[in-house]
Request: fold
Amino acid sequence: MQEEDSRATSYTTLAAGPDFRHEIEIKRSRFITVLRRTGTEELARDLVTGLRREFHDARHHCSAFIIGPDRNIQRSNDDGEPSGTAGLPMLEALAKRETLPGVADLSDVSAVVVRYFGGVLLGAGGLVRAYSESVSSALSLVPMVRRSRLRIGAAEVPHAAAGRLENDLRSAGFVMAGTSYAAGHTVLRVAVPDEPAAIAAAAGRVQLLTAGSAALTMEGTEWVDVPLA
Reply:
């Protein structure tokens, strides 16, 4: 299912940026968790492949990922640990992570836990707790954003007025969805909820801030990263 066909209108994911890494030690075993924002299964599997090369001397490279606004793709792999003691606890840590009170909607995220065995057997229960804690502790530290399907409006303004208008719109709480430049003007793109009242408010704000010299032309919808409040 493509993002534009999704029933969901928003979900939480990792903020754009490099892989996030966090390490814990349990009974001399090292558990290195790597989190990456991944929008496809191919990208999720690429993370595992890359970490196998980087940590080639580690005993296990266990993984889990959730993909899609509706979280319809969920996979896990124990990579040699006893069945159900690694990948599944990692997947549950992702799936059950509350991003708001009572809300678990984390998606487009992959987790790989690289384990260096420390010589002490943890037992099945110990492994479940270790892999779950590894992912949960990393998630508590990684920056996240709300990814929302929003309606895009475009306003053409003179180059000289674009910077001020963009700052004014940001100050008013609007989400900017990009800027492009033409020979005689700048196009500012604003993302708003796909609701008549929100669209009217955005259009009115643009007219007010430009003294009626610019209008907001509504386009299609896009998935946009919105900072968490």
